[in-house]
Amino acid sequence: MTITIWSDIRCPFCYIGKRKLENAISQFKHKDEVSIEWKSFELDPNLRTNPDISTIDYFVNKGANKDQMSQMLANSTAMAKEVGIDFNFKDAVVANSFNAHKLMHAAKKINKQNEAKELLLKAHFTDGKNIDDMKVLVALGESLGFEAEDLEKQLNDSALDKNVAEDQMQAKEIGVTGVPFFVFNNKHAFSGAQPEEVFLEALEKAYND
Fold first, then answer.
1. pLDDT in tens, 134-151
2. Which of 87, 82, 97, 111 is nearest to 44 (CA)?
3. Could you please report the per-residue DSSP string of 27-42?
């Protein structure tokens, strides 16, 4: 049974949704038969990496209300804490996620996508690391088992660019407009960081179809 997920490393609800899904899978009696495939989706493909501005300032510059944005970040921080994740928006680096998505595709080749996703999300939301910095990505890759030189070569290769582009084209074809977006066994789909019981119900339904 395969769960296909479109998400962005820059999306807080993708991190929360990942944890809620994992909690649901842990309660699923056929959990050993579940595999997860991560697909690339960029919330802002044109974003320029800028370590010198805060997350709030980035959104305000795009037209958001500062007070409303502060409240939204506080709300998502509280939601994250409920599932054991510490968001640290104060130190989060405003960074383009394209190269991080390339790391996800490199990790797919060695069956380490889940581990790579967790490392990237934690690096961005908790540790204040720049997910568009090649040194950061290579260091994360080394902890997955990559040789630094080999991974750097892959991340600089346009072959992985095509993989990212294909994922995003596929998202467009099936009508994905927001992430996280979950597809269970190519049959049942929904978006958002849903409650664990919704994920568990989707798992049961997809398994029994």
1. 999 999 999 999 999 999
2. 97
3. H-TTGGG-EEEEEE--
Residue with tokens 């921080």: 77
β-partners of residue 37 are 4
Nearest partner of 176 among 3, 2, 6, 4, judged by Cα: 6
Place of tokens 């409240």: 71
Give the three-class secondary structure for 8. coil
What's the pLDDT band for 161 if we cut at 50, 70, 90? very high
Fold (CATH) for 2-208 = Glutaredoxin (3.40.30)
Coil, strand, or helix at residue 52? coil
Read off the amino acid at residue 37.
E
Q: Which residue has the tokens 């568990």?
A: 200
Q: What are phi and psi of 92, to 5 degrees?
A: -65, 135
Tokens of 166: 């294909």
